[in-house]
Specification:
The chain is α+β, with helices and mostly antiparallel strands. It contains 4 helices and 7 strands. It has a 7-stranded mixed β-sheet with strand order 1-2-3-4-5-7-6, sandwiched between helices. Helix 1 crosses helix 2. The termini are far apart.
Length: about 170
C-alpha cells in the first residue's frame, strides 16, 4: 500500500507520538537522523518540540506520509531561512521513512512530495539538505536529483573514532 502525503497536518497527540516512534525506530535501525542507537522517545522529544515550535512560528513546515490506518511512516521538515539574502532556498531536515517500508519506493515518494509542496511555496528556488557520509544515503538523494555541492570531512562524530563527512546537497527547482 502506498503512503498518503500531507503538508502541515494538524498536530494531534497521535501525530506527535507517531513522529516520535518513527524517529526512534529509524534511529535504532541506524538511520542518520541526529541520534545513535539505542535511543528512547524521551531523548527525541525535545528535538521534536523544537521542530513543532518552529512550525507554530511559521519557520518550518512538515510533510508527513501515513499508511491507510493513519500510522506515521515518513516525514520531512522544511525549514525557511531567516537571513534576508537566503530566503530563496529552504533546508530539508529529519527526512525519515520507517525501516519496515524501506526499499518499496516510499523514500522516493516522500522526496517527490517534498519537492511538489516546496514548488507550491512560490518563492523558493532550491532545496538544500545535509546527510551523514558513510551511510550511502547521498546516493539515494542523488538519484532524486540532488547534487553534492559541499563536503566537510569528519564533521559528524558518531562515536569515538567514528567521524563521518557532512555532505551538503542541493536540488535546484528552476
Amino acid at each position: 500500500m502506498t503512503l498518503t502525503f500531507a503538508l502541515d497536518p494538524p498536530v494531534t497527540p497521535a501525530l506527535r507520538d507517531g513522529i516520535l516512534r518513527l524517529w526512534a525506530d529509524v534511529s535504532d535501525a541506524g538511520g542518520a537522523v541526529g541520534f545513535v542507537p539505542p535511543v528512547h522517545v524521551e531523548e527525541i522529544r525535545p528535538e521534536l518540540v523544537r521542530h513543532l515550535a518552529a512550525m507554530t512560528e511559521g519557520r518550518m513546515r512538515l510533510v508527513v506520509g501515513c499508511e491507510g490506518d493513519g500510522t506515521v511512516a515518513a516525514t520531512a521538515f522544511v525549514a525557511f531561512n531567516t537571513h534576508r539574502l537566503m530566503k530563496h532556498w529552504v533546508w530539508l531536515y529529519t527526512v525519515m521513512v520507517h525501516p519496515s517500508r524501506q526499499g518499496r519506493g516510499d523514500g522516493r515518494d516522500l522526496m517527490a512530495a517534498v519537492e511538489r509542496e516546496v514548488r507550491g511555496f512560490g518563492t523558493v528556488d532550491a532545496i538544500r539538505l545535509t546527510c551523514r557520509g558513510g551511510t550511502g544515503v547521498d546516493r539515494f538523494y542523488a538519484s532524486c536529483g540532488y547534487k553534492e555541492v559541499g563536503r566537510v570531512p569528519g564533521a559528524i562524530r558518531v562515536a569515538d573514532g567514528d567521524d563521518r563527512d557532512d555532505i551538503v546537497m542541493l536540488l535546484p527547482l528552476a
